[in-house]
TrEMBL record:
An example Gene Ontology molecular-function term: kinase activity
Keywords carried by this UniProt record: Kinase, Transferase
Source organism (scientific name): Litorivita pollutaquae
Keyword Kinase: yes
Protein name stated in the entry: Nucleoside/nucleotide kinase family protein
Amino acid sequence: MGGDFHIDVLASKIMNSPKAGPRRLVALAGPPASGKSTLAKALCENLNASDHRTQVVSMDGFHLDNSVLERHGLLPRKGAPETFDLDWFTELVSGLAAGKTLYYPMFDRDRDISIASAGLIDERTETILIEGNYLAYDVAGWRDLLPHWDLSMFLDVPEPQLRNRLLARWKSYGLDDAEAEARAEMSDFPNAARVRKHRLPTTMMI
């Protein structure tokens, strides 16, 4: 996925896609480091430039707190499906679909924490781009999100490229090669495999 042309095509498809309720919900799913956040930002800028009110919500804001994960022995697997507050996320998605004005949490990657009520969805917003690893995940609870999506995309990145991106991400935080490999092997690589293995059909594959 690359180039302004592709962004224009995707943005046009989003604007012209039907919506089931007062807002259009678009899911951008895919493994970690597949480019979901980058694509969501580019699409949001493109759509807003066309006077189509759009906002982005990231599933990362719904990470359980590190203290909770530590108590349950889940901190080393942070990023796995069970390390998110799925109930709260599902409740927010339902509210967004209903057209409500809602606050939502945002993830501060530098501090590795979620900040409650850091974002606000305005009632005038027409389209919401929701990005996250498990938005097309064929496992109990997660698959119940599927009916909320008016349009869904899965970012399919070749595994070698994905591994390089994940390792580069950890190195950007000051880890050496061995440390980056260990962190990615502990969580990111297994999570990427789970996302691919249990993928639900989506409107588009990118």
